[in-house]
Specification:
The protein has 181 residues and is mostly helical. 27% of the residues lie in helices and 7% in strands. It has a domain of 122 residues: 30s Ribosomal Protein S18 (Irregular), CATH 4.10.640. The structure holds zinc ion.
C-alpha cells in the first residue's frame, strides 16, 4: 500500500514530453497510431498564460528540485536533429497554434511553469555565463529562436530595472580633459 504524496498541490510535476507514435496491438486488432502524450494524458496545450507568482513559487518548490536538481534547466535537455552535425540555428518555435508542435520542445517550452520575466531572476540567471556575464548561446542551451529572443528581452529589462546586476569596466577619467584651459 502506497500513498502518493503530492509535493505541491497546485502544480503538477512536469514530464518530458515526447510524441512517439505507437502502433500497439490491443485485442489482436491494429489500432491507429496514437501520440504518447495523448496516451499518457499529458496536455500539450499552451494557450493559458501562467502568472509570474506561480512560476516564482514553482522554482522554489520540491517538484522543481526533483525535476532539475541543482543544475540549470537546460542541462538535462538534448537537441534532437538529423545527422551528426546539428543545424546552425535551433527551431523557430516549439508552440504553434497554442499547442506544442514538436516531439522535442526546448527547455522553456516543455515546462509551462518557467516564465521568462524580468523579475524571475532565478530563471534568468541560469542563462547567464558566470564567467563572462554574457547570455548563453542557443547552441548551448537549446532554446528555440522565439524563446531565446524573449530571454534576451527579459534580461535586458532586468538589467535596466536592476533585478540583475552586472559589472561595467572601471574607467579612470582625467577631468582636466573636460575643462577649458
Ligand atoms: Zn521552444
Amino acid at each position: 500500500m502506497f500513498a502518493i504524496k503530492c509535493l505541491l498541490p497546485n502544480i503538477t510535476k512536469p514530464i518530458a514530453i515526447k510524441t512517439i507514435t505507437t502502433t500497439a496491438t490491443l485485442n489482436g486488432s491494429l489500432k491507429p497510431p496514437q501520440k504518447l502524450t495523448t496516451l499518457l494524458g499529458i496536455s500539450t496545450d499552451r494557450t493559458q498564460t501562467i502568472p509570474l507568482e506561480t512560476s516564482l513559487k514553482y522554482l522554489k518548490s520540491k517538484a522543481y528540485k526533483q525535476t532539475y536538481g541543482e543544475d540549470p534547466v537546460w542541462v538535462p535537455y538534448r537537441r534532437n536533429h538529423k545527422g551528426a552535425i546539428p543545424p546552425r540555428k535551433t527551431r523557430k518555435t516549439c508552440i504553434r497554434g497554442g499547442h506544442i508542435s514538436t516531439g522535442n520542445p526546448c527547455p522553456i517550452c516543455r515546462d509551462e511553469y518557467l516564465v521568462l520575466h524580468e523579475n524571475n531572476t532565478a530563471l534568468l540567471n541560469q542563462f547567464i555565463s558566470p564567467q563572462t556575464g554574457a547570455i548563453l548561446s542557443y547552441k548551448q542551451t537549446g532554446l528555440c529562436q522565439k524563446k531565446h529572443q524573449e530571454l534576451q528581452v527579459a534580461i535586458a529589462k532586468a538589467r535596466d530595472i536592476g533585478t540583475i546586476t552586472f559589472d561595467v569596466p572601471f574607467r579612470k577619467y582625467n577631468y582636466a580633459d573636460y575643462y577649458k584651459e
